[in-house]
């Protein structure tokens, strides 16, 4: 596997030419289908005008505050470490609570009241809903494990922002017009199969608004993540959704 950006134009000449030729052949087949399904208006009036808009969005990107990123990384790491220490008040230190397999085996050793098992290895399920349904069973320990998982997930966002920010201090995500991530290296989740617009590397459509809970403290967790993304001087960021 190689990075196309590291190859010379001569090295990618044949590949690029084949790409263009295959696209033309597909167009010759699909153009008649557009007419047959009476979708020419959607293609010409919606999809094609959107192409340069998305291209401009990708090139311009969204600015990242490195100061806010570093602060968020440190904050969530401290929270994660504290939750891990509390979990190990009961769970042996040689059990990695970040490993689903190891934690599942510890739950099994404690006769956890869990009936759901994983498809592959047949281990006890350790997903959030399953753990929350344990109620008061070893509640302090299970709550600490859930917090560990939450802070690890929240901390992944600013780390990803820092990793992917470009020379201009901005993120330049991929906006996938057909929904699918295609050749993107984003592995944060599955792209929508409905064909709606998606975003990847990173997915800015899934920035959390809060932690996995209710209350002002959980709202603050979301604000810390979103605070890593800032507007350029003279601009403001606006969040909107269609009801």
Proportion of residues in helical segments: 40-55%
Query: Major sheet, described briefly?
Result: 3 strands, antiparallel
Topology order in helix (H) and strand (E) letters: HHEHHHHEEEHE
Mean pLDDT: 90
Short description:
This protein is mostly helical. It has seven helices and five strands, in the order ααβααααβββαβ.
Overview of this structure, please?
The protein has 243 residues and is mainly alpha-helical. It is built from 7 helices and 5 strands, in the order ααβααααβββαβ. The longest helix has 28 residues. It is globular, with a radius of gyration of 23 Å.
Secondary structure elements and pairings:
Layout: H1 9-36, H2 40-60, E1 62-64, H3 66-87, H4 100-109, H5 128-132, H6 139-164, E2 170-171, E3 174-176, E4 198-200, H7 216-226, E5 229-230
Antiparallel strand pairs: 1-2, 1-5, 3-4
Helix pairs in contact: 3-6
Keyphrases for this structure?
two-stranded antiparallel ribbon; 3-stranded antiparallel β-sheet; mainly alpha
């Amino acid at each position: 596997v190689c990075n196309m950006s590291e190859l010379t134009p001569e090295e990618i000449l044949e590949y690029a030419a084949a790409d263009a030729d295959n696209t033309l052949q597909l167009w010759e087949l699909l153009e008649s289908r557009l007419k047959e399904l009476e979708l020419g208006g959607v293609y010409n009036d919606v999809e094609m005008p959107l192409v340069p808009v998305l291209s401009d969005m990708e090139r311009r990107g969204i600015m990242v505050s490195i100061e806010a990123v570093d602060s968020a990384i440190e904050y969530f790491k401290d929270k994660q470490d504290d939750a891990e220490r509390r979990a190990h008040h009961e769970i042996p230190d040689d059990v990695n609570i970040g490993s689903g397999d190891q934690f599942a085996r510890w739950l099994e050793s404690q006769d956890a009241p869990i009936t759901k098992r994983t498809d592959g290895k047949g281990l006890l399920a350790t997903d959030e809903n399953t753990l929350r349904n344990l109620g008061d069973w070893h509640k302090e320990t299970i709550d600490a494990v859930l917090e560990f998982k939450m802070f690890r997930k929240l901390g992944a966002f600013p780390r990803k922002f820092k990793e992917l920010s470009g020379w201009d201090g901005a993120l330049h995500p991929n906006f996938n017009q057909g929904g699918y991530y295609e050749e993107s290296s984003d592995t944060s989740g599955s792209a929508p199969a409905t064909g709606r617009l998606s975003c990847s590397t990173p997915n800015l459509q899934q920035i959390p608004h809060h932690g996995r809970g209710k209350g002002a403290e959980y709202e603050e967790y979301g604000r810390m993540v979103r605070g890593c993304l800032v507007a350029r001087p003279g601009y403001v960021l606006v969040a909107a959704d269609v009801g």
